[in-house]
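Need residues for this backbone.
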């Protein structure tokens, strides 16, 4: 039985040409090789198959039963080869480049959408896969080469021992938002926050710790009614009038329009940073370059 390692496709091509042309001479003209070359390749293929592939019938070569079986397979093999070549030729210029982006669940979905949008408008088509998870989980997937870029409000902490790089996209002052029912709290802000219901992030997040410290400095005590990890859920609950919430001032207009809320006050002392984290110090993928460049433009406004 012929082993896969013994099947030489150059030998099979010579066999296929001889079988189709009916003689070695015509096969030589087709393949532009010498007669001794084809004769040797036929001999080696017959030896690998452990059977004769041709018998001579006058001046022509006639296929044996084994030869006919090999020819059937050869027809399929070379037909598939032509199909592959045509497919590569027609799709090489339009085949989308796959890019996997990890979005930390604390990142505003409005900012994530703005950051990713330019990658979808590149001249060369890109297919973006977006995954959302906790910051540390995304970093582990980045280290395993399952993600190309992580967008997060937190930078890569050196203690994680992941060889990756922080690309600061920019920073924005914090703003406090609320449904129209809370509009009166804008007067006397920030002291009006005392006793007001607040939808906050998790206590372990750097942004929450900074917020709590600011409240202590301002001597205000909002009433934390819910601690929510997902930024979209937090804003949706804010839209329902369940409490105040914070967000980046740079997209305040978008937040107000999308969630039908108002700006209650601004906190210039607290600045929310966003990072793109990658395994490359200098990004080479055009889609990732577009995302980081757009981030710098977004936060420069």
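Answer:
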């Amino acid at each position: 039985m012929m082993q896969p390692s013994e099947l030489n496709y150059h030998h099979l091509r010579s066999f296929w040409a001889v079988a189709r042309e009916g003689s070695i001479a015509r096969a030589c003209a087709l393949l532009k090789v010498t007669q001794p070359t084809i004769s040797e390749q036929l001999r080696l293929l017959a030896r690998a198959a452990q059977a004769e592939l041709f018998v001579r019938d006058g001046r022509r070569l006639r296929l044996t039963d084994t030869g006919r079986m090999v020819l059937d397979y050869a027809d399929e093999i070379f037909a598939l080869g032509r199909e592959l070549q045509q497919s590569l030729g027609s799709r090489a210029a339009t085949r989308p480049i796959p890019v996997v982006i990890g979005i930390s669940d604390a990142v505003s979905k409005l900012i994530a959408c703005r950051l990713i949008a330019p990658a979808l408008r590149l001249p060369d088509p890109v297919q973006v896969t977006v995954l959302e998870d906790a910051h540390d989980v995304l970093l582990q997937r980045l280290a395993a080469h399952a993600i190309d870029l992580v967008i997060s409000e937190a930078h890569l902490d050196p203690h994680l021992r992941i060889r990756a790089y922080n690309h600061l996209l920019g920073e924005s002052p914090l703003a406090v938002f609320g449904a129209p029912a809370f509009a009166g709290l804008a007067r006397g802000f920030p002291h009006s926050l005392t006793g007001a219901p607040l939808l906050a992030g998790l206590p372990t997040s750097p942004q929450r710790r900074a917020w709590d410290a600011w409240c202590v400095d301002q001597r205000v005590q909002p009433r934390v009614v819910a601690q929510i990890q997902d930024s979209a859920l937090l804003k949706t609950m804010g839209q329902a009038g369940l409490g105040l919430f914070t967000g980046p001032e740079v997209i305040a207009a978008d937040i107000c329009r999308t969630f039908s809320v108002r700006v209650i006050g601004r906190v210039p002392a607290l600045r929310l940073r966003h990072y793109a984290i990658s395994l490359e110090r200098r990004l080479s993928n055009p889609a990732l370059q577009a995302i980081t460049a757009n981030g710098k433009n977004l936060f420069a406004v």
